[in-house]
Write a structure and sequence with these properties.
Elements (H helix, E strand, L loop, with lengths): L3 H11 L6 H42 L3 E4 L8 H8 L5 E16 L2 E10 L1 H4 L23 E5 H7 L6 E12 L2 E15 L4 H4 L2 E5 H7 L8 E6 L5 H12 L4 E4 H4 L1 H26 L1 H12 L1 H9 L4 H32 L1 H12 L20 H27 L3 H4 L4
Parallel strand pairs: 3-7, 4-6
Antiparallel strand pairs: 1-8, 1-9, 2-3, 2-5, 2-8, 4-7, 5-6
Helix pairs in contact: 1-13, 2-10, 2-11, 2-13, 2-15, 10-15, 11-13, 11-15, 13-15
């Protein structure tokens, strides 16, 4: 262990004399480089955490935690399928649905949509779609009235408002004397919803389950059952057990499977961004190497004199490890404080920038969400600080060993 003497000398070497201001400047630059790298890492990771959480929550408020399907086509006996899983305590609610592709036409505007047929009476039990409706509720979807709910971005694209008529073209052919024609039906826009995700606001539409059954000739069948669970994070384990219990008669899929490409991409992007940012901190941390090498060269005579006074090479080693570690401590401390401060005020900064430039930073036509969410995790901050300090300690080892190996006779030969 090092004694207070090593700590005193290490602190003394950080303070500049008249002849070595350049070394002190390099020390300050190294600390600032480490701090800046940590600020960037904490901010980027917090934004990515917030983005991941926000997209997941919005997606699952519109979609479902899990789906129960028939592996061989439509779910004909969906009531029996519902009864087969109603004993599972983790399942809070169940609702039938029909999912299909369609095109909406208004004048010269044509848009492809993911069409979902729902039962308004029980849909609110499995999703929060009603919370996103603008001045309407789900009860505007009544059977045989052929009403439709569309997203706000889709409404802007088609140039429609509540009460307007749109033509829905289904990929179901009808045989007529004029030949085979696509099946078309006039629908009334009964409501508009705005979720804040372009994926839903631009590419989805909702109709009544009965209207969807008639339009797509499902009879009494549905595409599957939508499930809401008490805890969305326990879904993968529950899916495995339910599928074993159903013995292949039905098949349960969850949100981690249906959206796995997106969440895997986000996770990989976060990992790669973290690696890149750590490399930035590593560059700043290893500036400590060059700084300590210059200090060791400049202090050759001082080291030799200390050795002649009986200070061991191990103490010399600790002196320079302490000096480099102090740079790492100050850089890490200021970086963590700066990163937390920037992260907590990032939304206000973004709003100010948007007011200055007169447009949204996140283009809704490109990004899933239009606001910049932030989620500061203590675990991320702690891990970043640990990595940064560890890299700084690692950077001090070679210069410190070089100083400890100094031979007093050789160092003082030309003094």
């Amino acid at each position: 262990m090092f004694r207070p003497l090593e700590l005193f000398i290490g602190l003394r070497y950080l303070r500049a004399k008249r002849r070595n201001h350049f070394i002190s400047f390099i020390s300050l630059s190294s600390a600032l480089g480490i701090a800046l790298g940590i600020v960037v890492i904490i901010t980027v990771l917090s934004v990515m955490n917030g983005f991941h959480s926000e997209v997941r929550d919005r997606m699952l408020r519109m979609a479902s935690h899990a789906h129960l399907l028939n592996l061989h086509g439509n779910l004909e006996d969906w009531q029996r399928a519902k009864d087969s899983i109603k004993h599972i305590e983790e399942i809070v609610a169940v609702a039938p649905y029909i999912e299909a592709q369609a095109m909406l036409v208004k004048s010269s505007q044509v848009a492809g949509v993911q069409l979902t047929g729902i039962d308004p009476a029980i849909e609110t039990q499995v999703s929060d779609i009603e919370d996103f409706l603008l001045d309407q509720n789900l009860h505007v979807l009544t059977p045989n009235q052929f009403n439709i709910l569309i997203g706000s971005e889709l409404a802007k694209y088609l140039g429609v408002k509540v009460g307007d008529k749109v033509t829905l073209i289904a990929p179901e052919a009808s045989v007529t004397p004029a030949g085979i024609l696509p099946k078309m039906r006039r629908f009334t826009v009964a409501g508009i919803y705005e979720i804040g995700m372009n994926q839903f606001d631009r590419n989805t539409a909702l109709i009544h389950l009965g209207d969807a059954q008639k339009l797509y000739r499902y009879g009494d069948a549905v595409s599957g059952l939508r499930l809401k669970l008490a805890d969305l994070f326990m879904v993968p384990n529950l899916t495995y057990h339910v599928n074993n219990e159903l013995n292949g008669k039905y098949w349960m899929t969850d949100w981690t499977e249906r959206h796995q490409n997106f969440f895997r991409a986000v996770k990989m992007e976060k990992t790669m961004m973290f690696v890149i940012m750590v490399l930035i901190v590593a560059v700043a941390a290893f500036n400590v190497v060059s700084m300590l090498i210059m200090v060791v060269t400049d202090k050759q005579a001082d080291i030799a004199i200390l050795r002649t006074y009986g200070i061991s090479s191990k103490s010399i080693l600790w002196i320079f490890i302490i000096q480099g570690s102090l740079i790492g401590i100050f850089g890490t401390l200021f970086g963590v404080l700066g990163g937390i401060a920037l992260t907590l005020n990032l939304e206000s900064i973004i709003q100010f920038v948007e007011q200055m430039i007169g447009q949204k930073v996140l283009d809704p036509s490109v990004y899933y969400i239009t606001d910049l969410p932030v989620a500061l995790h203590v675990s991320d901050v702690s891990f970043v600080a640990l990595i940064s300090f560890s890299l700084t300690i690692l950077a001090t080892i070679y210069p410190a060993m070089k100083a400890a190996s100094t031979q007093p006779a050789q160092a003082l030969r030309y003094e």
